[in-house]
Amino acid sequence: MAGIASKATLVALTVSVALLAGCGQRGGGASGTRAPLDAFTAEQIYKRGEFELENSQRPKEAVYYFSEVERLYPYSDWAKRALIMEAYSYHKARNYEEARGAARRFIDSYPGDDDEAYAKYLLALSYYDQIDDVGRDQGLTFQALQALREVIEQYPDSEYARSAILKFDLSFDHLAAKEMEIGRFYLKGGHYTAAINRFRVVVEEYQTTTHTPEALLRLVEAYLALGLTDEAQTAGAILGHNFQSSPFYGDAFAQLRGRGLAPQARGKSWLTDVYRQVIQGRWL
């Protein structure tokens, strides 16, 4: 009997989805006037949203059904489920601002819920997936880092933590890449002090990224151009100690040797502080 009841329920839902398809398309399809959904249950409307999301490749249409569940059945468990799916559907449609809004509503409405980790992960993704669209304004990258950090720190054992860690590292690398891009621009134009300031940020704040070896090479070049040989030699020493196999070190070594210099810590500057802390392990 239980099996027959389950089959009956499945048939009923299938019929409901088919009926909802007709309602959704009445009056000109997704862009036309839709028939009201008041006669359908929360589950039926929710299933129609799932169907649109999985089969029709129309995430914006799925949003409509999920939002209707929220509107018609605001205090039901289906409304809670619909809200997280609404955030996901907006993100899939690349409507990132709307995805953030839905994710935040879920977090505010259902604190401590089992899906809160996923809502915060979606919030972080809505920033992260826009990073490549940003020019030199890194506001979204910083917001992505902050949101990803929350997922990592608050839900370290969740299925989203590992992905968040990877994306955090890539976002961090992206910030360093932007500093390098601007630094190279200044260096090429002969604005050596401005270039040094950018490369210094990479060495001091983004030292775990892949851009540190090149930043140290460019510091050698910039300091040599300014005649500040102590700083150039110290940058070369740090590069040689930490990245001796890097081609950037070979280039820096050749430039120093061409001036009769060697990579070694000399003088007193922010670079000698880095050398003392990172290489000698002395922080005072």
From TrEMBL:
Keyword annotations from UniProtKB, A to Z: Cell outer membrane, Lipoprotein, Membrane, Palmitate, Signal
InterPro entries in the cross-refs: BamD, BamD-like, TPR-like_helical_dom_sf
Signal peptide extent: 1-21
Gene3D superfamilies xref list: Tetratricopeptide repeat domain
UniProt xrefs under SUPFAM superfamilies: TPR-like
Assigned GO CC terms: cell outer membrane
GO BP annotations listed: Gram-negative-bacterium-type cell outer membrane assembly; protein insertion into membrane
Positions of the Outer membrane lipoprotein BamD-like domain: 41-235
Cellular compartments annotated: Cell outer membrane
Membrane topology: Lipid-anchor
Entries under PROSITE patterns matching the protein: PROKAR_LIPOPROTEIN
Family: Belongs to the BamD family.
HAMAP family (alphabetical): OM_assembly_BamD (MF_00922)
Subunit note: Part of the Bam complex.
Annotated function: Part of the outer membrane protein assembly complex, which is involved in assembly and insertion of beta-barrel proteins into the outer membrane.
Protein name: Outer membrane protein assembly factor BamD
Organism from which the protein derives: Paracoccus suum
Phylogenetic classification of the source organism: Bacteria, Pseudomonadati, Pseudomonadota, Alphaproteobacteria, Rhodobacterales
